[in-house]
Amino acid sequence: MISERGLSDRLAGITDRRRIAVVQVRGAIGGAARTDDLIRTIGQARRNPRIRAVLIEIDSPGGTAIASEQLYVAVRRLAARKPVVAWIKGVGASGAYFLACAATRVLAFPSALVGSIGVISVRPVVVDALRRVGARMVVTKTGPFKDMGAPWREPTEERELVDAIFRRFTGAVRTARGFDDEALARVTTGDVWLGIRAVELGLIDGLADDEDTALEAAQDLAALPHHLTVRLGGRRSLLQRLGVPGAGMGPPGERWLVEMESWLGAPRPRA
Question: Is the same domain home to 98 and 172?
């Protein structure tokens, strides 16, 4: 037997074509979360007149700096045209929090992990090892910094590059959250917090226990009488839905490295 509300929702689905789009960002940005595909999906949501608001569901430890900022720019363009709610349902760390800063409103599950605002660059240095075995690298290059980041040279100029990316990240956080210098310094230590603490710190606007609550926020922002949805993006395979590592990522390659590095650097509490 169909309830009165259920019947009204079905009728609304037939007569009212307005929708809230749901876009999922799962896995490392540049890894399982394919940047080009997500940017294309976000662009479709921006251009579709039937889509009146967008919910971005986030469960990501971040990823590569450039890909994260590309998604931030795409979400910012979307939010300039229609309301966007970013809901951190599991992990919204580093670059994943970066992209969330472009949303109209940021929500999180109470025990979701939020933050890790910072930039990291990791590479092996084998200078001493080569010296001990009596080996050396002969490099022919057109400029003194052409091999910057190579394992056979000492880390020197990389710090300036990391700091420049960090300033872009923190600039987005400052703009989105309205932080002054003191408040910004408090949250840009690379630390992560539970959603309930992130509200107190001003990193997010509120909490949402489930997708329905997050959709209601998008509904309010768009002034819709319902929160009927359309899910955008490619369909996930059975292996992806079962959570099989590496499912849908293609042959092992750089994407796999990004995925592993990002998750290895993210805290994963267990109960």
Answer: no
- Among 179, 200, 224, where does a domain finish? 179
Q: What tens digit of pLDDT does each residue of 177-229 get?
A: 999 999 999 999 999 999 999 999 999 999 999 999 999 999 999 999 998 99
Instruction: Say if residue 142's pLDDT is above 80.
Output: no
Cα separation, 159 vs 3, whole angstroms = 62
pTM summary value: 0.81
What are the CA-CA distances from residue 176 to residues 22, 76, 184 (Å)? 22, 10, 11
CA distances from residue 116 to 109, 119, 190, 236 in whole angstroms, order as listed: 16, 9, 4, 28
Cβ atoms of residues 152 and 126 within 8 Å? yes
Assess contact for 92 and 113: CB atoms under 8 A. yes
Please give the tally of structural domains in the chain. 2
Per-residue pLDDT tens for 242-253? 555 555 555 555
**Mean predicted lDDT score pLDDT of the chain:** 83
Q: Which domain holds residue 132?
A: 119-179
Q: Is residue 209 part of a domain?
A: yes
**Are 174 and 202 found together in one domain?**
no
| Domain-embedded: residue 186 | no
Is residue 150 assigned to a domain? yes
Least confident of 3-17, 21-35, 53-67: 3-17
